[in-house]
Amino acid sequence: MLDYLALVFVVAVKVFKKTTPNGKVTVYLGKRDFIDHIDYCDPVDGVVVVDTEYLKGRKVYSQLVTTYRYGREEDEVMGVKFSKEMVIGQEQVVPLINAKMELTPVQEKLLKKLGPNAYPFTFNFPEMAPSSVTLQPSEEDQGKPMGVDYCVRTYVAESEDQKSHKRSSVTLAIKKLQHAPTSRGRRLPSSLVSKGFTFSNGKINLEVTLDREIYYHGEKVAANVIVSNNSRKAVRNIRCMVVQHVEITMINSQFSRHVASLESREGCPITPGASLSKTFYLVPLARSNKDIRGVALDGHLKEDDVNLASSTLVAEGKCPADAIGIVVSYSVRVKLNCGTLGGELVTDVPFKLLHPAEGTVERQRFNAMKKMQSIERHRYENSLYTNEEEDNIVFEDFARLRMNEPE
Amino acid sequence: MADNFTDFGIGPMAQPLKMVSKEVVEHMLGWNIPEEHQDLVHEHWRNFPAVSKYWHYCLALIYTMLMVTSLTGNGIVIWIFGTSKSLRSASNMFVINLAVFDLMMMLEMPLLIANSFHQRLLGYQLGCDIYAILGGLSGIGGAITNAVIAFDRYKTISCPLDGRINKIQAALLIAFTWFWALPFTVLPATRVWGKYVPEGFLTTCSFDYFTDDQDTKVFVACIFVWSYCIPMSLICYFYSQLFGAVRLHERMLQEQAKKMNVKSLASNKEDASRSVEIRIAKVAFTIFFLFVCAWTPYAFVAMTGAFGDRSILTPVATMIPAVCCKIVSCIDPWVYAINHPRYRAELQKRLPWMGVREQDPDSASSGTSVVTANSAQAPAEA
Questions:
Q1: Per-residue pLDDT reduced to its tens digit, A30-51
Q2: Chain A contacts of B252, Cβ < 8 Å?
Q3: Are A296 and A328 contacting, i.e. CB atoms less than 8 angstroms apart?
Q4: Helices (H), A63-134
């Protein structure tokens, strides 16, 4: 085993691997995060190494499985399960059916290194497949967190329908994510609203403009707020927040969470006739929302590496209402407090929050930052998952590899 | 028994004894109640011969068994739900509440057993009131708690994200169940409206449904609606809504599966989704059926007593409903608690000799929660 790793190490390919409890079947994946580029999606490419003597004529199957969990496990009563598992891809890996299948570079490398007992498999995500999202559980919640997740499950069986045994099956958790398009777009989202009052003349106008349409995770969102008060009321204060809208399509329900907010009295009260122009900066971060239940996060929960769920992107020509799974969107909401009788003036300006696309400068910066956290993180994952057979990738080898990586 | 109807014309006090052809002295029902308390016994019961002591012993035996069952079942429920942290949720407070009501019903049983051995009511009016208050409070409270549990389940299942009732709401609902049970317990006890009288073997007590006046009839009609019709329609309503919500979720999930090209929605899929609905329907029906079993006999007897043909209400026939609702109060904890996975796990941990074999729900794999649409074989892509 070590020499395989050494080989892998030389060409500096990171691989994820996990072995069945009985040690006879090992699955290798080139990555854990598969990116949906809207027009196409990274295929799930892997290699299975199997002890052929152990098989004795049985076959090895692999499945791409998505699990929806839309309610807490402890709330399941009367035999209702708040989770649904769907097999969105299934393939017989050993014996190989399609010998002429096109291999990805990672698979080619792995096949070369791992010898004759290695068999490739490839899954394509269905076109509509939703992104991985995890809804942050509250502290008292037990059991698996809600959300959409994916895994690759490999098992040994006589035939496709036969039940797999725990000892000879292995599950690797993967993520399907969306990245921002390479160009961030020139359009500046903005909104203009005004409010009149029942018993007095004149209006308060509120204009909110964002400095971008697409923000990357960790970036500052700048909202330029212009208030002009032509009414007889005064604006007491201004609240500005980033709202995350989460729509859980499988049960047709939605909710929103404030993931960043600030309140300002600067320049307030804005008296009749006065106006105010001010830029508010907000940074929506998962870190600052750790104790809020239901905040949508990208994929799995890892202590340092967690970020807010990316906005759900829909392919051009597709209706956003057709999106399935958990649909996430963001907006900046500005609220003017016009006193107890005056009520509130509210407006929402939508924007997108995403990871920078592969190959852009921002992406490189982002990767460098991630790398720093990664060793710590993998150590954490190890401690977290050692006694949990179910979950997932064994990172030990991988972590060692990364530390030796000549970069 | 029919022979005794011939004694109709003679006043009740006048003939506590009667010779029967077999030369056995046979008493009429109510003979052993002292004269000053004779007004407790309604005319109707005097038409029947005194119930043989074997009937009394038999009833005492049944009640002893029920008492033991109820004590263990409800006792364990209160003990485990009350003391284990993982079970301290709002929904489980209702199950505890139901167990408390059921235990209260159990408190009637030692009274009855004592009464049975004396073949008469101990304590007369006071004993009767205590017995009937226990029965009334626990019966009406238990019925409405069933409805509240149905409501809670409906909320939890129809909106799994935020539907769960919080602890304050749960406490209010529990207070509501007690207030719901109060009027028809307090009013007869204080004789403001209706009253408690012995019934059947004259060893048990319940509200009066025989007195032939407007007040009593209205009382019976009201208690029928209040403690039978309303809880039952609530139970039906919430479980049918719940069933609808589950079906809706299943359908939406299927649609999503279709969108992801999980093509072979063949037999496999349909069976799987149907079984969830069937499972729900089974549980809901069990609960509804138990409710019907518990309270329909009582409702029938009371309504017949007030508005129907009383001659069918023999002492034995009127004891059946009492036994029915007590049996159900013993079954309740098993129905509500035993199909609660965490309760079973806890039960196994604390009382391993009970032989409950339950996987720890935390470690139970998601594999159990599956239902899959077996996918179309991914045609060797790429």
A1: 888 888 888 788 889 889 998 8
A2: 249-252
A3: yes
A4: 105-114
* Residues B256, B261, B266, B267, CA torsion sign: negative
Residue numbers in B near A249 (CB within 8 A): 252, 256
Quick check: B259 contacting A, CB < 8 Å? yes
Return residues 71-90 of B near A (CB < 8 Å): 86, 89
Dihedral of CA atoms A282, A286, A291, A292 in degrees, nearest 10, equals: 70
Q: How long is chain A?
A: 407
Rg (CA), chain B: 26
Residues B102, B107, B110, B112: is their CA dihedral positive or negative?
Answer: negative
Q: How far is B292 from chain A (nearest CA, A)?
A: 19
Q: Of how many residues is chain B composed?
A: 382
Measured CA to CA, the distance from residue A85 to residue B262 in angstroms comes to: 11
Which of A71, A144, A249 is closest, CB to CB, to B366? Answer: A144
Q: What percent of chain B has pLDDT over 90?
A: 25
Which of A117, A104, A115 has the alpha carbon at shortest distance from A13? Answer: A104
> Using CB atoms and an 8 Å cut-off, which of residues 146-205 of chain B contact chain A?
153, 156-157, 159-162, 164
| Edge-to-edge strand ranges of the sheet holding A118-123 | A16-19, A25-29, A44-50, A118-123
Provide CB contacts within 8 A for A7, sequence distance 6+: A113
Instruction: Quickly tell me which residue has 């009201």 as its tokens.
Output: B222
| Model pTM above 0.80 | no
Quote the CA–CA distance of A284 and A293 in Å, as a whole number.
16
Per-residue pLDDT tens for A285-332? 888 888 888 889 887 655 556 788 999 888 776 777 778 889 999 999
The pairing of strands A44-50 and A25-29 is antiparallel
B91, B373, B382: residue with CB nearest A122: B382
- The whole-number average pLDDT for the span A219-236 is 89
Question: Rg of chain A over CA atoms, in angstroms?
Answer: 25
Q: Measured between CA atoms, how close is A271 to chain B, in angstroms?
A: 41
For residue A137, what is the nearest residue in chain B, using CA coordinates?
A: B161
Q: Nearest residue on chain A to B255, judged by CA atoms?
A: A250
Q: DSSP of A64-110, one letter per residue?
A: EEEEEE-S-GGG--TT--SEEEEEEEEEEEETTS-TTPPPPHHHHHH
The alpha-helical segments, DSSP class H, found in A60-184 are 105-114
Helices A396-404 and A361-385: crossing angle, nearest 10°?
140
